[in-house]
Amino acid sequence: MPPSPGRPRTISPDAVSLVALRLFDDRGFDAVSMDDVAAEAGVSRRSLFRLFPSKQALVWGGLDEFVARFRAALAADDRGDALAALRSAYVTASVFPDGQLEVTRRRLRVIHVTPALDLRADPRLTALTDEIHRFLVARDPDADELAAAVRAHAFAAVVSSALTWWAEHDDGRPEDVLARAFAVGTLV
């Protein structure tokens, strides 16, 4: 009787993503293939594609968790100051566990230098900006629509700029850098 194959090896999507992000960060996103990632991570190409259907998916992991933390923090904030509520929700969403700091930093650096990964092109972030616009109008029904739209986009730009700066400078924790960025802003 042949030996049983045993339990299949469990592949950690976070570990594979970190391997990929290190490669992308060191060599450039366009210079690394999915085959390179599979080989470096020690997984089959088939397993890699089962976890991540594209190279972009390897980079964009974690975004859904960030958006979920942001939405939960915003929903829990009942203060009347909409801008303060948004700043607080973004800072809360930017608190990453220590074990996720390297992957987050590398992810942001890869996104920053890869035009095909432009943050503004991701539909989840576009939807979040639209949601912030609606939030601002809902909190102040007399609000000027243009001002609310500008503020929603300004928030997105401040968050993107501050977190990218953090990723490139290794200066403290992302939530602290974001709080500092909000302290210098005038629209947000």
Describe the protein's architecture and organization.
The protein is an all-alpha fold. It folds into two domains: 13-58, Homeodomain-like (Arc Repressor Mutant, subunit A), CATH 1.10.10.60; 62-184, Orthogonal Bundle (Tetracycline Repressor, domain 2), CATH 1.10.357. It is built from ten helices and no strands. It has helices spanning 13-27, 34-41, 45-51, 55-60, 63-76, 82-93, 101-113, 123-139, 145-169, 174-184. Helix 7 (101-113) packs across helix 9. The chain is elongated. It starts with 12 loop residues before the first helix and ends with a helix. 29% of the residues are buried.
Question: What's the topology here?
Answer:
Elements: H1 13-27, H2 34-41, H3 45-51, H4 55-60, H5 63-76, H6 82-93, H7 101-113, H8 123-139, H9 145-169, H10 174-184
List keywords for this structure.
Tetracycline Repressor, domain 2, 68% helix, 2 domains, elongated, Arc Repressor Mutant, subunit A, 188 residues, mainly alpha
Q: Alpha-carbon distance between the termini?
A: 69 Å
CATH topology of the largest domain: Tetracycline Repressor, domain 2
CATH architecture label name of the largest domain: Orthogonal Bundle
Note the beta-strand portion: under 5%
Q: Tell me, what's the shape?
A: elongated
Radius of gyration: 19 Å
Main sheet specs: none
What is the fourth-level CATH superfamily of the largest domain? Tetracycline Repressor, domain 2
Mean pLDDT, all residues: 89
Unreliable stretches (pLDDT < 50, length at least 5) are none
Would you tell me the structural class of the helices and strands? mainly alpha
Structural domain tally: 2
